[in-house]
Amino acid sequence: DVKEGKIKEFGPAKLERENDSPLFEGLSKEFAVWMNHGDEVKKAPAGFKVLGRTKTIKVAAIADEKRKIYALQFHPEVVHTQFGEKILENFHNYFPVLP
């Protein structure tokens, strides 16, 4: 359930982890992330669990671990996201793609 957000975010936020996941293995319970969005997920789809939230976004990271599907509201690929490289490394290590 995605809707236009009440708050458009462009800048830093603090992600609070809610559930364990291989995607966030080795990371702090809270860390800085970079947001750039106008929409937000109001409710995670069936089969997904919420991995993290921010002060303004209740669903900032979700996963369907069984099907190995992940979605992030923040940008792990930018230098402003603390542990961004580690998140991408975890994704690659746990869910390698074909060469």
Q: What's the average pLDDT? A: 88
Percentage of residues in DSSP E strands = 35-45%
Number of helices: 1
Main beta sheet, described? 5 strands, antiparallel
Shape: globular
Q: What class do helices, strands and sheet pairing give? A: mainly beta
End-to-end CA span: 34 Å
Helix-strand pattern, N to C? Answer: EEEEEH
Report the C-alpha radius of gyration, rounded: 13 Å
Total beta strand runs: 5
Unreliable stretches (pLDDT < 50, length at least 5) are none
Helix content: 10-25%
* Strand order in the sheet with the most strands: 2-1-3-4-5
Description:
With 99 residues, the chain is mainly beta. It contains 1 helix and 5 strands; from the N terminus they run βββββα. It has one helix at 84-94, and strands at 2-17, 30-41, 49-53, 61-64, 69-72. The mean pLDDT is 88.
Layout: helices, strands, pairs:
Layout: E1 2-17, E2 30-41, E3 49-53, E4 61-64, E5 69-72, H1 84-94
Antiparallel strand pairs: 1-2, 1-3, 3-4, 4-5
Kindly summarize this structure in a few lines.
With about 100 residues, the protein is mainly beta. It is about 10% helix and about 40% strand.
